[in-house]
Amino acid sequence: MNLIDEFKNNSIVIDYDNKDRRIDNFMFSNFRNISKSLIYKHIRIGNIKVNIKKITPKYKLKINDIIKFPNYYLDTSKKKKINLKKEEYINFFKKIIYEDDYLLIINKPYGISVHGGNNNKNIISILKCIKNNEKNLNLVHRLDKETSGILIISKKISILRNLHKQFNNNLIERKYIALVNGLWNLNNKNINISISKIKNNKGKNISILNNNGKKCSSIFKINKIFSEFTLMDIKIITGRFHQIRIHAKYCGNPIVCDKIYGFKKDNIKVNNLGLKRLFLHANYIKFFHPIYNKKICLLSNLDKELENFIKKIN
Q1: What are the extents of the domains in the chain?
Q2: How many CB atoms lie within 10 A of CB 17?
Q3: Which end of the chain offers a freer environment for a tag, N or C, measured as fewer CB atoms within 10 Å?
Q4: Of these residues, 24, 65, 144, 258, which one is catalytic?
């Protein structure tokens, strides 16, 4: 949610939509250009207060709470506005596959971050540019920058909470399609391993196998076998960082064009065949609509680049 236009005198009064949110999460979503570490620091030292009192990051907001924050937060946040070329505007508008008063669901393109990003251009900032009457857009879940496919965005905090509850109770079904290197072992169906997120030597977040990490589960099913590749249908039970990518590597079949978990020689070979992006696409989602209380099932086809590569290796 973004309430920047409603902030006055470097403060905001909490309404019903934001009650019970943690103060840290509220600040993160409203001031995306301020680093999380700085927000945590300002909460800790009292530069961010609620009702003129110091609070902890876990503090849950109440209706009519008044949050005070540093002056420059507003100036930094106003820099988030972006300009889109007409062609970008039209192409991104076509990516919307479902919309109502509560939800906005898109077929996310490859190569665009869901948050952050260069020059503040990310999924949320782009959507706010093409939907300038929508100020309260929030990511319900995430996709890697390198991954394309179905992405849900909520228009109200109450909707966000409902869908997060569905995720936590495993009521939302998500499926992906991926092309992996080599021939997949038929015995590798249900993958259950624990992983942890760390930073690599370039300062980028990656996942590693770790018995003491978070448990994650994926179900892999062969869709089609090629001479040097296997097309896989994947259902994720949990939603950990880079889960499918590290599961594929764990099985000895990294996803095609995976620059983090793949093998350099395999990536070069695929690049020479014309594919430059990760072959991972979120192609299916099923959930209960928080307001209409009916099942929503959505499918998303592969983009032309991935389709053309399949034709090339067929």
Answers
A1: 4-78, 86-164, 172-313
A2: 16
A3: C
A4: 144
